[in-house]
Amino acid sequence: MNNRAATIGGYVAGFALLFLIWHFASQFLVRSVLFPSPFPVFERAVVLIEDGLLQEAVLASMRRILQGFLLGSALGIPIGLALGSFRPVRLLLEPWTEFFRFIPAVAMITVAVIWFGIGEESKIFLIAYTTVFVVIIATAAGVGAVGKDKIRAAQCLGANRFQLFALVALPATVPYILTGMRLAMANAFVTIVAAELVASNDGLGKMLWDARLFMQVEDIFVALISLGLLGFATDRTFRLLIRAFAGRFNPTM
């Protein structure tokens, strides 16, 4: 309980320091209408919440992020396991992985809109695209990092190939998979903004785009703060779920 209170207190103090530095910079360093202090931004956030606009944008973006993230992870984990476990698969698919992972999701926006239109499918595709390669690389690295001594010990105990994979390689790879998923989640937040800037009727990216067009600087900062807080909350939630359901595989413990 004390550890939890200390953690929450540290988070609160950290955010308070961030906003204090922001206020100081806006009042004494920049002093521009294009860089407002936190107070008018918070006031604007309250107005948007009362109108229901901020909640609508947050829910739209988070829905797309989670759908694309889960799809990309569901594809990336088995591909990464196959890549790391079987040399023929690695020789066949590694060029694909190395080729596509260096094409940024932003560059694929036009292709996604052409293929799927401006509906939800294009945004989910982009999130899955930016997620899948991070998860593949992390998972394959985890399989490659399994200690030879563990494999030999299992073989000495009579383990067959399936048991080696299910009881030795897979559990040892789980921390790498979870780390890859956490990194991929950050990519998903970056990509959703770009996707919604180009083709969307709602979401935080659309809010940023509209605010830029009409020079509503407070709205821009509200969207940025919302993205940061959502990302922070999502990562903490992810860590709590890992601790609750896969505690012994938690890479952060």
Automatic annotation (TrEMBL):
Probably part of an ABC transporter complex. Probably responsible for the translocation of the substrate across the membrane. Its main location: membrane. Keywords: Cell membrane, Membrane, Transmembrane, Transmembrane helix, Transport. One of its GO terms (biological process) is alkanesulfonate transmembrane transport. It comes from the Bacteria. This is ABC transporter permease. It holds the Pfam family BPD_transp_1. Residues 58-242 form the ABC transmembrane type-1 domain. Coiled coil: none annotated. SUPFAM superfamilies: MetI-like.
